[in-house]
């Protein structure tokens, strides 16, 4: 089969990360270490997963880069924006996710990654108080500065292409407003009027990226690109977008375990999820307005897998609660507890307990890599707008809620979507056979 529709991954790929905290510094350090042969990018689908293409006598199992032209790790150039001025080396050391021995071999490269001034509004993340920010800029001025940052980075580092990835904190919840977020004209009008209530700083990053021909990935639960105005911009600029919220710990478990209950036709009485974490993300989420954004994202997973309308005897009126607790001693080592009350034959109750002791950034780093490489691939394939095949990596997959589209949250269905998109881009036929 020929890779006829995908442009080759020629030249350098710039990855500009918004936020240079624990997740970003772990991601960047891991890539730099992996390309020196000093670490392995475990957890990355693009680096490890093998999938079947073809059927019968033509059946074979290949890595993604044997099917489609994915950018090589050696061709990546990193840059970032952050509210704190610490470079990537200092950030990796401060985050205390990785051991010193896993950072020092790439110290020189990390020190060169110095964050540009962030487009930041303290009202959207009240627990952050950095001074490496654009001072006194309106929302539209923020867009203009960010666009210039992208152009300058591309030129200075000789990049052919750039991807912008949001790996910063969760912003205060911004509910989609039909008067601001439903058309591009209204959004631009709000930006130019410096409407701070309806235009989050993250929207400035997304607008700047798409306008500069850079795909945009939203790794937090922010509304940012999950609004019709941004869909319109993505269509206008012919750029792919994806979001929202990296699916790392508890929601990964939920999207994989809930289908077991569903396919086995067991009933659900309640699902209680709670987390403790102590990194910067936990600090920001300790603010109720920011937690609301995360809660909307985490609650949406279950309701589209165990659907009351499809099985009223089994899934009517189950109780679903999500909690996140800031607990500084844990730092990046997040713990997720799930208590699941199910019922079976003749209504008899049973319980399932899941305790996931995760490392938040260790789980998120490979997602960052895969999302950047795959959205770059999608752009070279001429795909634009919401990339639903990337929902495998995301907690609250984007969907067109204006026409009541239901997102796919079932992990195994998402995996099929991911594989079929890669098959199609590689010139193979999509199918749903179990490998």
TrEMBL record:
It comes from Muribaculum intestinale. It comes from the Bacteria. The chain crosses the membrane at residues 13-34. Gene3D superfamilies: Dihydrodipicolinate Reductase, domain 2 (3.30.360.10), NAD(P)-binding Rossmann-like Domain (3.40.50.720). One of its GO terms (biological process) is inositol biosynthetic process. Belongs to the myo-inositol 1-phosphate synthase family. This is Inositol-3-phosphate synthase. Keywords: Membrane, Transmembrane, Transmembrane helix.
